[in-house]
Amino acid sequence: MTPRGYRRPDRRTGQVLVVMLLLILVAAAALLVGARSGAPPRAERDRNTAAALARAKEALLGYAVAYYSSHPGEFAFLPCPDVNGSGITQEGESHGSCGAKDANTIGRLPWKTLGLPPLRDSSGECLWYALSGPYKHVNAATKSDLLNEDSDGRFEILAADGVQKLAGATPGSRAVAVLFAPEAVLPSQARTRLPSTVDICGGNYTPANYLDQAGDLDNGSVSSQTDKVDRFGAGPKSDRFNDRLIFITRDELFRAVRKGNDLERKMGILTAAVARCIARYGLANPGPGAGRLPWPAPVALADYRRDSAYDDHGAADPALSARVPDIVLDSSAATGSPVGSALSACTLAAWTPEVAKLWRNWKDHLFYAVARAYAPAPAAPEACAADNCLKVNGAGPYAALVIYSGSPLAGQTRSAPPLDPDAKADIRNYLEGRNAANHPDAAGNGDYQSGPATPAFNDILYCIDPALNVAPCP
Fold first, then answer.
1. Rounded to whole angstroms, how far apart are CA atoms 136 and 143?
2. Which element (helix H / strand E) includes 70?
3. What is the pLDDT of residues 225-246, one digit of tens each?
């Protein structure tokens, strides 16, 4: 007899309880296995890799910011990778020479040079690093002849579809440097340790044993040729590809450099020194054209990096406003002066080693206008009048002007050489307002423009008066 109030157990309820118990046991077993193996969950491993990459990127930006203090006159150079860990350098140190001038390079992250521990990804592998040729900190013989905020990176980064560009849709948006987390070894890779060379990170220095290939994208290879653009892939993980990467663009790098250095003040010092050396040319000229100043160099050049490319254009070109010249042989021949160079041989106290390096790297940002009364001729300068001398904001007269073009403003494009040469040949991509509109100023009597920086104007002007004194333009 069944007691009153008693209910027979529901068989389905019992089955549910059994399933729940099994699930609890499986979960507990998984936690126990995870605890024993020490393997963190996938999300945590991904976070560890991302944190290592981010820390390396921060260190590279810090290196670029601090570079000027140890190398006055030079901004934003980055260390070469660690490419062999023996001989000249030890493991974790930047190699002193990494390929031809302006050629890209790839190797292990130089963590010791950056003041870092050997950063590792979730698989325990140390990070790798690719660097654009113009940005390499190397010896003087293989260092780029020009590095500034217009110097493009040399890396395009493609998304998983192999088409979308995460970096490099335009020349100015290409990556300057790329950091790689190689992750776990793939079947095609051999990470056998090299004795006495990779004692800390382990493995070897062959990029293909760490960085992967997807289609025609090869993360483990860069061109050894000058000025080549290499492409890397940021594809999804698979059994053939598991690299993780982050990158630094030109704009990111120079935002940090500007924030950490008084760049505009240094550019003002450079502009003043260039103006004084040009004035010195006239003052030192012992020929029949004593006091005359040199012709400009053309705006469009075949190579914007070499100092010798900034060669005065001579009498055949009527332009009296263009780039600052370095070689002034044509001007000297016209005035009877034995002086051969306006800048590289400048002996003024203002032309310090620091300024000489600023000139080397920022010369493409400097422009120059000379009054017709002071243009090269075998006679002393003419007396200034309204039709033969320069003005600034209606004031004057002036014998010449030197203009520094600041950072590109809205609508201005000027990628560094040798790529996108048409942009660099257009003075409107450098100067604003009347400073651009006056070009080529064949009459040599233009009214130029100076003033505080605004979103539409950031030129810096120094004026040379008829007595060849130099001062900031009013």
1. 7
2. helix 42-70
3. 999 999 999 977 788 899 999 9
